[in-house]
Amino acid sequence: MLPVVNRTECTGCGICVDDCPSGAISLDDAGISVIDKNACTDCGNCISACPAEAIAES
Fold first, then answer.
1. What is the phi-psi region of residue 47: left when phi exceeds 0, alpha when psi lies from -120 to 50, beta otherwise?
2. Which of 16, 17, 28, 54 is most buried, by CB atoms within 10 Å?
3. 19 to each of 14, 44, 48, how far by Cα in Å?
4. In this structure, are residues 55 and 47 in contact, taking their beta carbons and an 8 Å threshold?
5. Which long-range contacts (CB under 8 A, 24 or more apart) does 37-42 make?
6. Which residues form the 4Fe-4S ferredoxin-type domain (predicted)?
7. Residue 5 pLDDT more than 90?
C-alpha cells in the first residue's frame, strides 16, 4: 500500500518533500505534492508529517 496525495487538501507546504528519506516526493508546477511510486519505500513518514492530512495510504 503506497501513499496517495489528496490534491484538493494539499497546501504545498513541502514538509513531506523534506521528510521523505527516499526522495520520492516533489512538488509539481501547481505546488502540489507528487509521489514517485517507483522510488517510494512506503515508510509512512509523509503521512505522519503532513499537517493538512492530505496524504494517506491507498
1. alpha
2. 16
3. 9, 10, 10
4. yes
5. 37/2, 40/2, 40/3, 42/1, 42/2, 42/3
6. 1-30, 31-58
7. yes
Average pLDDT over residues 25-44: 97
- Hunting for cell 495510504 — which residue is that? 57
**CB neighbour list of residue 17: distance below 8 Å, 6 or more residues apart:** 25, 26, 27, 33
Q: Which domains does the chain have, with CATH numbers?
A: 3-53 (3.30.70.20)
